[in-house]
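Hi R.,

As promised on Friday, here is the backbone we talked about, encoded as structure tokens. Could you run it through your design pipeline when you get a chance and send me back a sequence?
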């Protein structure tokens, strides 16, 4: 039913050839928990590296062991300071490249700027920019998980393995939620209906879709490519031309009154540990974590040993 059986993965851990170096590119110690779990499953020690910030906020990376001719895997989990996280990764990749590493694989469970993958008026497709920067820095392979849009893989000119967390989430539902068969899978928007349908089919449950007014902040803004445009001084510019104005609908703000802590109907929020959230778990006991270090460890092992990655994508639907 699932793409990977955890018991099968456990039997394949700690089986790696020599020449593998595992680094964590995070200067924040709270972001290294996932890296330590992956290293423990692989049976290797974390590589020796110093990543820190200068007084002027410049990022400095010092690799303290030889990587010449070795397969380097750099694990980077995204912290609140996304821009610093990106620079830490780029500088470490470039440092390994100039140190003659055989290959440099970035393990980025949550790919930053992945939501900025579409052109919006006079904006930019930042995901494409970031992909180009990573490839230029020296990245030769990328392992990530559940990209916001699968098409982001096309921004890279290197191999990209977009792993899925759905098997672990489905396993959590089956094992931890009592009477889960008396439930329904709800898609929060029509855009997520396909993924919800994929979950519902594998769990053999019904599906519902919440359809409402779009909350995109830019949906009320209009530029010259739409008609009629929002022109405030059209009469002053062209007295003979009158263009009807589009008045955005005003939406009343949502106000929560009183102490609602513990009274919200949500029983549990299930998330993965692709990003650190230990502080949030202390603040909200409803947050439950699903560990995905197992599949990341197996992906690293297979790439290092030159094995096929198709095993990790068994029974994964097109809509996952």
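Update: got your reply. Pasting your designed sequence below so it's all in one thread:
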């Amino acid at each position: 039913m699932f793409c990977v059986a955890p018991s099968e993965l456990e039997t394949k851990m700690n089986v790696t050839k020599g020449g593998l170096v595992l680094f964590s590119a995070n200067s924040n110690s709270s972001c290294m928990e996932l890296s330590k779990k992956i290293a423990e499953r692989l049976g290797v020690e974390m590589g020796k590296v110093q990543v820190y910030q200068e007084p002027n906020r410049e990022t400095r990376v010092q690799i303290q062991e030889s990587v010449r001719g070795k397969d380097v895997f750099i694990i980077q989990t995204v912290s609140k300071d996304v821009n610093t996280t990106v620079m830490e990764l780029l500088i470490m990749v470039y440092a390994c490249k100039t140190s003659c590493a055989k290959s440099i694989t970035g393990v980025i469970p949550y790919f930053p700027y992945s939501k900025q993958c579409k052109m919006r008026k006079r904006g930019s497709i930042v995901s494409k920019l970031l992909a180009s920067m990573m490839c230029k820095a020296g990245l030769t392979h990328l392992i990530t998980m559940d990209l916001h849009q699968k098409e982001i893989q096309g921004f890279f000119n290197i191999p990209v393995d977009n792993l899925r967390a759905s098997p672990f989430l489905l396993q959590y539902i089956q094992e931890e939620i009592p009477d889960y068969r008396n439930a329904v899978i709800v898609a929060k928007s029509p855009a997520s209906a396909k993924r919800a349908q994929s979950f519902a089919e594998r769990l053999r449950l019904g599906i519902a879709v919440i359809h409402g007014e779009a909350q995109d902040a830019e949906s009320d803004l209009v530029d010259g490519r739409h008609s009629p445009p929002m022109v405030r001084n059209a009469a002053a510019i062209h007295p003979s031309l009158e263009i009807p104005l589009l008045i955005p609908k005003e939406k009343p703000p949502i106000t929560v009154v009183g102490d609602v802590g513990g009274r919200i109907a949500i029983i549990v929020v299930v998330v993965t540990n692709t990003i650190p959230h230990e502080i949030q778990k202390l603040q909200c006991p409803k947050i439950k974590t699903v560990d995905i270090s197992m599949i990341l460890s197996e992906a690293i092992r297979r790439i290092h040993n030159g094995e096929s990655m198709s095993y990790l994508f068994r029974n994964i639907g097109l809509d996952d």
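One thing I noticed while checking it: The radius of gyration is 23 Å.

Thanks again,
M.
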